[in-house]
Design brief:
It is built from 17 helices and 2 strands. The protein is mainly alpha-helical and about 500 residues long. It is globular, with a radius of gyration of 22 Å. It is a multi-pass membrane protein.
């Protein structure tokens, strides 16, 4: 419960601040050019430091890293809520990202090392998967309520009670198994290269959204990221105690999960963005009403993760949950390609969101569990960090890539149709039609991305069902089946 609460706090933060951003911008006098840094400062610190945070959790112990991460996140949230100018706000957001990068992998790796019984593990990861997928939508509801009825500052202050309860619970209740620490010296070159490489990658996609793909700084960031991350892989293959042991990502099942999860998140983040704009700008919904409109997706996520995924995970192979799950989500996304200005919420958006939630919840649950199953205890933190990294990078790519596709489709539609619009009201109608055309064009790409994610899950992930004697996978990448014993003893 305490781990779930902490994870909810981190996931909430990704969307709750977006709803409050216009009010905060006005209060603090943040310029339009600088407002993106409220989101970007967090994304860069969080995405860039995740691997380092995972390694620290392996070194210090997950419980200690978890409690320190919660305390730091609470302090950073208090600073953000009390911000008096843009510099203080940007600093607080970056600090939230730093402690979030310690907290998120510590939370997932605690689950990995504490729950080894197949049925207990299924329940724990069912709840975790539901939060990982649906927490963003909960953030839209909570952010809308706090901004509309209280003040934008409460979108930060709300983290403090979450953190205090989770930290106290973790300190007194959680018992981390002994002997799972990795006390090897820190791989400093690996830390520097991975942090700079991931920061360059996330910033490249974030900048592409505002400055365009051909912008010299955007291109420079992508080139720098490729060089830094390639150098990181070379260094990791040669040092004695690597930050990211390559055995973690070259194992067939984990590699397939990191890839398919990252792709699914690309589709999900783009969808949150477009549906929020569609409901507020095209349909005229208030922030609170927009948040509630996402409730069917949350209900679907919880049902898919805690009911379907949890009940079937001990009976069928993970890929038979992940592949069909992503395909059901793709079907929900496919329905949304029929969006029009006058589309009915009950007839189109409701069934689409239910299918999306059910599919994603069903797929996320076994993915989260299998990503850390069979990994050596000393690598649990860094394996968990890779799950978060694939989600964070996927979110950055999804927002930038799908937003660019939508913007170019909108511009093209308006250019083709605006000449025939005589009156002002007709011109406004063309602009709204152009926006919807942009959203549906991007959603078609999201459908394709989810189908590819399903294909990767079905072909790469070949582990047997949890609780069976072995999990097979070509961990060395050389086609030889490694047998990873899955412990089936109560935690």
């Amino acid at each position: 419960m305490f781990i779930a609460l902490a994870q909810l706090m981190v996931v909430l933060d990704a969307t709750i601040v977006n709803i409050a951003l216009p009010s905060a911008q006005q209060d603090l006098g943040i310029s339009d050019g600088n407002r993106q840094w409220v989101v970007t400062a967090y994304a860069l610190a969080f995405g860039g430091l995740l691997l380092f945070g995972g390694r620290i959790a392996d070194l210090w112990g997950r419980k200690k890293a978890f409690v320190v991460g919660l305390g730091g996140f609470a302090v950073a949230s208090a600073l953000g809520g009390a911000a008096t100018n843009e510099a203080m706000m940007f600093g607080a957001r970056a600090l939230q990202g730093v402690f979030g990068a310690l907290l998120a992998p510590a939370a997932l790796s605690l689950l990995a090392v504490m729950f080894t019984d197949a049925k207990e593990r299924a329940k724990a990861f069912g709840i975790y998967g539901a939060i990982a997928g649906g927490g963003g939508a909960v953030g839209l509801i909570l952010g809308g309520f706090l901004t509309e009825y209280l003040d934008w500052r409460w979108t930060f202050f709300v983290n403090i009670p979450f953190a205090i309860v989770a930290a106290a619970g973790a300190y007194f209740v959680i018992r981390e198994p002994e002997g799972g620490r990795n006390r090897s010296p820190l791989d400093i070159p690996g830390v520097v290269l991975s942090t700079l490489g991931l920061v360059a990658l996330v910033y490249g996609f974030t900048r592409a959204e505002s400055a365009g793909w051909s912008d010299s700084v955007t291109v420079g960031m992508f080139v720098a990221s490729v060089v830094l991350l390639a150098t990181f892989v070379v260094v990791e293959s040669r040092v004695k105690a690597p930050l990211l042991p390559l055995r973690v990502i070259t194992e067939r099942n984990r590699g397939g999960i990191y890839l398919s999860l990252g792709l699914a998140i690309i589709a999900m983040f783009g969808l949150f963005l477009f549906l929020t704009y569609y409901l507020q700008i095209v349909k005229g919904y208030s922030p609170v009403k927009t948040g509630f409109a996402f409730l069917p997706m949350i209900a679907g996520m919880i049902t898919g993760s805690t009911q379907i995924g949890t009940r079937l995970m001990t009976r069928v192979a993970p890929r038979l949950l992940m592949g069909p799950g992503f395909l059901v989500a793709a079907l929900g996304m496919l329905l949304l390609t029929r969006l029009e200005i006058g589309s009915s919420y009950a007839a189109l958006l409701l069934p689409a969101m239910l299918l999306l939630g059910l599919g994603m919840g069903t797929a996320f649950m076994p993915a989260m569990s299998l990503a850390t199953q069979g990994v050596e205890p000393r690598d649990a933190g860094v394996a968990s960090a890779m799950v978060n990294t694939s989600q964070q990078v996927g979110g950055a790519i999804g927002t930038a890539l799908l937003n660019t596709i939508a913007a170019s489709a909108t511009t093209s539609y308006i250019a083709d149709h605006i000449a025939g619009a005589g009156s002002r009201s007709q011109q406004q109608l063309v602009q709204l039609e152009g926006m919807v055309e942009g959203y549906t064009s991007a959603i078609w790409f999201a459908v394709g991305i989810l189908v590819v994610a399903a294909g990767i899950a079905l072909t790469f992930v070949n582990a047997g069902r949890p609780g069976s004697a072995t999990v097979t996978g070509s961990g060395s990448g050389e086609g030889v089946a490694d047998e990873v014993q899955v412990p089936v003893v109560a935690h």
